[in-house]
Amino acid sequence: VLSAPSGAGKLSLLTRLRAADDRVTTATSVTTRAPRPGEVDGDHYHFVDMRRFNELLAADEFVEWAEVHGNRYGTLRSELERCLTAGKDVILELDVQGMRHLLRQGQDIVSIFLMPPSLEELESRLRKRGANDENDIRVRLQNAADEMAARGEYDYTIINDELDRAADELKSILDNERRRLQDS
Ligand code: 5GP
Predict the structure, then answer these.
(1) What is the DSSP string of 149-184?
(2) Which of 139, 132, 140 is nearest to 4 (CA)?
(3) H helices present in 67-152, as ranges
(4) From CA 161, how far away is CA 116, in angstroms rounded?
(5) Closest residue by CA, ligand 1 atom 2
(6) Among 162, 143, 141, 150, which Cα is nearest to 113's?
(7) Ligand 1 pocket residue status of 79, Cβ below 6 Å
(8) Closest ligand 1 atom to 7 CA
(9) What's the CA gap between 4 and 172, in Å, rounded?
(10) What would you measure as the largest C-alpha separation in the chain, in angstroms?
(11) Ligand 1: does its nearest atom lie under 6 Å from the Cβ of 99?
(12) pTM for the complete prediction?
């Protein structure tokens, strides 16, 4: 499980990792959030309306779900199984609630929290992205501070001060965890 405040650079990090490691894959979540410019349905997220989300919820299709920044996000059981059946190591991009939820279920997860170098840097990245309005930026910064306070609950913390270095660190965590699994 990889958690990161919005704007911490998770997407760039995962793009690097996927290019460097073909054993990992990321599961595509379902969300009620509107697509940002450039986001592709079925790739970044499955974009659905609230009615469809609630149908999936009622049908017990989610391993976990959460409300984040006023929108709902959920991990489909079918998507997780598809990735695992393909023999891949699956990265779930979840908020802190999602990580806690899986832990409570007793899932054997490795959890990693990605930190931005600072809240100032985070704010500047959110503004540069230009996809969020002022109110949204304020909500995301407040949530970022709350989420960062929970980083001690994670197995690992990576500080995304320099993308190459952070990507190397993520890769070595994965390699170590794979070795640990093999040895156990
Ligand atoms: P964004 O709107 O910036 O893409 O994502 C907002 C937050 O929702 C991020 O913290 C992201 O990790 C989280 N998120 C995305 N998909 C899921 C999901 O399926 N479950 C949970 N619990 N959080 C998710």
Answers:
(1) TTGGGSSEEEETTSHHHHHHHHHHHHHHHHHHHHH-
(2) 140
(3) 77-85, 96-104, 119-129, 134-148
(4) 7
(5) 33
(6) 150
(7) no
(8) 3
(9) 18
(10) 50
(11) no
(12) 0.92
